[in-house]
Design a protein that fits this description.
alpha/beta, Rossmann fold, four-stranded parallel beta sheet, 11% strand
Length: 244
Amino acid sequence: MKVGLFIPCYVDQFYPGAAIATLQLLEKLGVTVSYPKNQTCCGQPMANSGFEHLTGGCNELFIKNFAEFDYIVAPSGSCVLHIKEHLHSHEHEAGAAGISSKIYELSSFLTDVLKVESLPSKFPFKVGVHQSCHGQRGLHLSQMSELVAAPFSKPHSLLKMVKGIEIVPLSRIDECCGFGGTFCVAEEAVSAKMGKDRVEDHLSHGAEFITGVDMSCLMHMEGILNRRGSKVKVLHLAEILNAD
């Protein structure tokens, strides 16, 4: 299979380790990965702010960069959801629709396409897992706790394959961290309070690391951890799954 690696802006600019870990993990699993060097923002920040009509250039470039791949994989639930639901083009509508059907968030690709059953990873630490809203409610990476249905979590199932890891229980397993993209700018006080509550749940259960599928959420919580002088660190899911 030909897999195109899509790296979101904030991962590229602030957390390149998550991108490198994603690439290395896929290659360890025998996947041939290509990185289109001309890729830019997918347009999600503009669309979330009510300016989706200005994302035409982003859409066309994304189609140009990724249309020829069998699959597209990204270490970001929110960006993948944006592409799946909002990518469009007046000139290349078939290309846009094709991309929407073959783009995957990393944990979903590992679980649903590669059907990974074991990993050579080691991470002997206590880890709290943050289930980001876009991934959970948009991409269905895990079950919503308010539903009377069997629980599942693709990130959890992968983490359980990591040797030495201890996944700490949380009191509120799928509560929002308060980041919400532009929400954290427009509603700073509410966003910060939600983030503090989310961080406290992890800390009270002894987490040494907090992980998830979206570095944006983890970045929000990292800022709160740093402000309170905590030694707890954040790591993208890919960095733990790739650890040895």
